[in-house]
Amino acid sequence: MTTERHTKLLIIGSGPAGYTAGIYGARAMLEPILVQGVQPGGQLTITTEVENWPSRKEVQGPDLMVEMEDHARAAGTEIISDHISDLDLSKRPFTAKGESGTTYTADAVVLATGAQARWLGLPSEEKFKGFGVSACATCDGFFYRGQEIVVVGGGNSAVEEALFLTNFASKVTLIHRRDELRSEKILQDRLFKNEKITPLWFHELEEVFGTDEPLGVEGVRVRHVKTGEITEIPCKGVFIAIGHAPSNELVKDTLETHMGGYVVTKPDSTETSIPGVFAAGDLTDYKYRQAITSAGMGCMAALEAERFLAEQE
């Protein structure tokens, strides 16, 4: 049975941007509806320690998101467990279709769909995905106790994954195609001091190999970017940590994007190329990609939506 719901403000996606938009939207008496999506809480739900959230010296990512959801709900946001599969922004009210069968109409929309893990695109990577190849150390690291593991990448994500995996692995090899990391210095210091981690510079992943029955990883082949020499590294787990791509599937053909798919917003604003549609968080932020900046943009989006709706009235 199809259900129709109308709201002044529809927030698509959770995470710091979505929940903060919900808090501010509710306080503005917009009675917002927030549709959580397939990963309620976003990327922080697969993160362990968060050490840069103001007022909290250390907090677990999933715990922080539970608190933010509770806050948004207490403020008056209606939070719905559903996933938006189609979004029509051609006319107002805007129309969103949920996989539950519910159709949502809204006078304004805040997009907070975040980002998802980026993959290398190797056939062998795809073959062993879920059977030794992962993009989430906090999800799967536990399965590799006492084993040798490979992490691919050179940014914050890769270093954080490598450090976390030392809680389980006997050895972590960090494969990076350059000879220096792009991560924060404090994370680099921790990595270089950790005896379990061995950086492998100027290499890139060529192939993952393993057994077919049962499906499982036995090692990787890596190629030296300068000489082309191939080296085999035995391992039981391969963690791909090369960043994230914006989750723009709903709007990539209707909103202006740039920098590989990030939604374009007006300077110092969350306004998109369609009036009444606002974007916040990792969907639009290709530069900072931090929880605190996402939350700030969620605040901006709700305030700008309130102003937009007042002008329409």
Report on the structure:
By secondary structure, the protein is an alpha/beta fold. The chain folds into two domains: 3-116 and 244-312, FAD/NAD(P)-binding domain; 119-240, FAD/NAD(P)-binding domain, CATH 3.50.50. It is built from seven helices and 21 strands. The strands form six sheets. Strands 1, 2, 5, 6, 7, 8 and 21 form a seven-stranded mixed β-sheet that branches. Strands 10-17-11-12-13 form a five-stranded parallel β-sheet, covered by helices on one side. Strands 14-15-16 form a three-stranded antiparallel β-sheet. α6 (185-193) links the parallel β12 and β13. α5 runs parallel beside α6 (185-193). The chain is elongated and about 65 Å long. The model has no long low-confidence stretch (mean pLDDT 94).
List keywords for this structure.
FAD/NAD(P)-binding domain, 2 domains, seven-stranded mixed β-sheet, five-stranded parallel β-sheet, 21 strands
Give me a quick take on this structure.
It is built from seven helices and 21 strands. It has helices spanning 15-27, 61-75, 123-127, 137-140, 156-165, 185-193, 291-312, and strands spanning 3-12, 33-35, 49-50, 59-60, 78-80, 84-88, 94-98, 102-111, 115-117, 133-134, 148-152, 171-175, 197-200, 203-212, 215-224, 230-234, 237-240, 244-246, 257-258, 262-263, 277-279.
